[in-house]
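During the first year of the project, the team set up a workflow for recording each protein of interest as an amino acid sequence followed immediately by a discrete structure-token representation. This format lets reviewers and collaborators read both layers of information side by side without switching files. As required by the reporting guidelines, we include two representative entries from the current panel. The first entry is reproduced here exactly as it appears in our internal archive.
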Amino acid sequence: MLLLQCARGRATNQRYHIHELAEFSVEGGYLIDGFPSTGHTSAIASASLINAMGFTPVATIDSDRFPPVSMVQDSRPFHPTRIFADSKLKVAVFSSYLALPPQEHKPMARMMLKWARERKAEWIVSSVAVGSQIPEGKIMAVGSTEEARKKISGASMEVMGSGMITGIPGALLNHGAIGGQNVIVVLYNPAHEGADYRSGALLCTAMSRLVPGTACDIDALQAEAEKAERAMREAETESGEGILKRGMYG
């Protein structure tokens, strides 16, 4: 059983430790899953949203199952997996430079769902590359509930009729469907692996259509893609565990 306490300070469950750095609220709002998937496009799109909107880091996520990696920027160390939020927009983003191994996908999805329930977030938005299941350059989505599917259609996006979703996004959909949690997973076909800023721009734009008040800095997205790619490769190299593997989710 996962046990998660979201009081400010150290929150723990059996796998993950959330250390909250600031007070924030996402009641009635959105949780965005920004863990990397195939080609890192999901993480790049989430990073673009964070930077364009000026989201604030409000918590870190750690686990004994994560490699011992510290990222350094502007001479300051920080955790590779953090939560960013904007209380006015009621949006939080789980952002990570680490792609989790398959055995962590279901536990992380369950933790996100429990966190969303306790924070009273109404929506969870995730994304994943699905390769040849959809044409290159096209965006589709799938929802866990009828309300989620209506929201996808209302955003002028096509609802996927059939296919297979794997990894954290797949687990979020399954648990969301069973528990009545609104989950939307945006689907894309990346042009190539790596810093695919074109797919990142499409994905970021699609996510901003689903999450009111958010926007993407498309002009800066290529530089963001290249920076994120470097950081993720450094995390993989320094961890010595090859935790960032291409094709992890898709």
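The second entry, processed by the same pipeline in the following quarter, appears below.
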Amino acid sequence: MTPDEEKVLDANQGFYSAVQNLSLEEMDAVWLQEEWVQCVHPGWNMLEGWEAIRESWQHIFENTRYMRIAVGLQFLRVDDTLAWVCCTEKISTAGDGRFDTAYVQTTNIFKRHEGAWYLVHHHASHLPRPWGDAEQGERVQ
């Protein structure tokens, strides 16, 4: 693995750490804060611009008590100034007395800026639930 590939995977892990920690401060450090960055949450329309994206994460974090993401099937490509990671996610969340699990296919695009890699596009789309997994919406005891 090249040093740039390692740095991109570290940046990708930083994104998932920010999500799991429900941390806007960590999210601020991961994204390139520009008006042209984009984000598509599962089931949402595309958001454009750092301000709108940050507000979406704030809303998600304020309405979530717990979130864990298991990342699998990663594909990585690094070019000179752009890189992308495609992966699957199993997202487990809790809030309002409910426990939910969702499966998504994700593409994260990173741009090299001043020697570091920053997220510039996150797109997550729902996948069907694998057979045999627990039903979504189980009550938390």
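For the second entry, the following points were noted during internal review. The CA atoms of residues 81 and 112 lie 5 Å apart. The two ends are 44 Å apart (CA to CA). Both points are flagged for discussion at the upcoming steering committee meeting.
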